[in-house]
Amino acid sequence: xALITLKDVSFSYDKKIDVLKNVNLSIEEGENIAIIGHxxxxxxTLAKIFNALVVADKGEVTVDGLNPTDKKNxxxxxxxxxxxxxxxxxxxxxxxxxxxxxxxxxxLGVSREEIAKRIDFALTxxxxxxxxxxxxxxxxxxxxxRIAIAGVLALMxxxxxxxxxxxxxxxxxxxxxxxxxxxxxxxxxxxIINITHYMEEVVSADRVIVISDGQIVMEGSPRxxxxxxxxxxxYALSLPRATVIANxxxxxxxxxxxxxxxxxxxxxxxxxxxxxx
Length: 277
What we know:
By secondary structure, the chain is α/β, with parallel strands linked by helices. The chain is 41% helix and 21% strand. The chain has eleven helices and nine strands. The strands form two sheets. Strands 5-6-7-3-8-9 form a six-stranded mixed beta sheet, sandwiched between helices. Strands 2-1-4 form a three-stranded antiparallel beta sheet, covered by helices on one side.
């Protein structure tokens, strides 16, 4: 069942130059989607469309059956679609972590008993329950972003949008955040939309959407997308590091599979190759 649909959607900030141009997209409940594109391609504007932070100039948008052009639906849409942005420091409000996670549900008028349950669920989901009485100021960047995700999860959204949420993190922090998102997708059926320019993050997605100059130009599984290197080059996008290394090893004459995407797959292929020698 389609949870979010966009039909011929266009949008511009100045009403002159379209940032999005006739976008057609359907996202199913429980999908794990990656949206990639160069800077200025329009991918972050898509996140704002999903969450009704901006409303399309043209076309139709539906979020779980709700039309964002009807102002009475905007509040419900933002409860259904939670967005985690790039800088976690801009999203953390309280001086105590559990108070920060409680902030959203409190503003929705959720009962005290239900808020307590949501705090437990959210902090456990992101692996940060032991820090609940501490201060966010003492956390690493990856830990802060996990708390930001917990704050969104406490609203019990159907969709979690990560809008360049790992851009300011080191590799360890990026892995932490992506691991949390993938776990939520698999164990809680939360629909994940990961907007990123880190190609290593794309490999765990069910479907990859490539956007350039406000239009969807490629779509498919990670393996399908990364087989189209010439097209990715055209849109200033690279292959994951493991894929690049695998391709170079194959070009040198080694018997390496064509569809290596992760370091784990590359390591496995090299181990098998070693056993044959």
